[in-house]
Amino acid sequence: MKRIILIFIILIELPSLAQQSITLEACYQLATENYPLAKQSQLLENQNQLDKEVISNTKLPQLSFDAQATYQSDVIEFPLAMSGIEPLNKDQYRATLSVNQLIYNGGATGASLEVKSAQNKTKQKQVEVNLYQLKQKINQLYFSILLSQETDLLLKAKQKQLQAKLNEVKSGIKYGVILPASDKILEAELLKINQQFAEVESNKASLIETLSSIIGETLSISTLFENALVTSPVKTEINRPELELFQLKKEEIETNEALIAKQNAPKLLGFATGGYGNPGLNMLDNSFQTFYTVGVKLNWNVFDWNSNKKQRQSLAINKDIIETESETFELNTNAELNQQQKEIDKIEAFITSDLEIINLRKDVLKSADSQLQNGVITSSAYITELTNLFEDENMMIRHKIQLQLAKANYNTIKGL
């Protein structure tokens, strides 16, 4: 029974013991979802909905209530022949309820809705652009963590090799083949490796903390960062969200041009007013009365001193400015891509050279190992050659990570 309970407990705890892992693409996705700026997308959508409802309400009847009480110094007086008419009161009172209904405004309401929709698309794309610009920062952090991770593995391999060599040296000292105190040099080197472990882990923890704050996901020092095999750069068109933003800005200007063109269109309104006051519409009846008026009203701004035309000319200039910004962005992006491609070519050449150097270092270390076993060289000489090999292997790992980073940055600049 106890054995069954123990197995059950182990099965429950297994998922929590599983090592967390994450990929570069997952970091991109998490950043777009959890970075504080991402909340603006929904806020802008809510704001756009409210703005469109306000504009749409102009199609609905507009109610207004007015009330006033006045006292005037003089009133209309009638000749003696009409003396039977009671003089008007100098104190007068009136309360009215008016209804205005827009019948026609040349499509200005629809044009205003199109402007709001275009503005919302532009703002949403700006949020996307700002979030996209996080990718290069994520690249730098992710591959720096990956380098720490690979350096840790290389240090463990060196530690294992030194420990095995220490055991051999101690055996050689015991049988008088190797000089005494040679083991002390190896033990000191092992202590240095422990210091290097601590430095690598501290640096990695700092990088992970920064990355966690950006992607909004809790990561730990034990998290496994999967080695991102970034594809080699491909010759395709630039596909950055900034280019879409420039296009949306131009479309927003076009909707504003359409709205301005309709602002001078005739506006036809129907209206009705009902009220109660003293006097009413019959000025000769000096008493409180109810009254009403109904009708239609046409409003048309026939001449605006070319203000409408000048507004459209100003918008056309804005469109040209955006076009120059788009061309400048493409020019600078292509320059960045060329520079990044040269960086990739340079690092690839370094890696080829690294392989040749490491093969030579391994041959030298193999010879030093044999010489140490035969007492020809000291442990210090052996450690020198081992350290040289380790540094060259570490350099090749660094170059490989730098190559992956350069490719990731290239793809980010390209918009892939």
Describe the structure in your own words.
- There is one protein chain.
- With 416 residues, this protein is of the alpha+beta class.
- The protein has a domain at 19-72 and 91-311: Up-down Bundle (Outer membrane efflux proteins (OEP)).
- 65% of the residues lie in helices and 12% in strands.
- The longest helix has 67 residues, at 307-373.
- The radius of gyration is 41 Å and the shape is elongated.
- Residues 4-17 have low confidence and may be disordered.
Overall 3D form: elongated
Number of strands: 6
Q: What is the correct CATH architecture of the domain at 19-72 and 91-311?
A: Up-down Bundle
CATH T-level topology of the domain at 19-72 and 91-311: Outer membrane efflux proteins (OEP)
- Mean model confidence by pLDDT: 88
Report the biggest beta sheet as strand number plus sense, adding barrel if it closes: 4 strands, antiparallel
Strand content: 5-15%
**Number of helices in the DSSP assignment:** 9
Main location: membrane
Keywords: Cell outer membrane, Membrane, Signal, Transmembrane, Transmembrane beta strand
Signal peptide: 1-18
Protein name: Outer membrane protein TolC
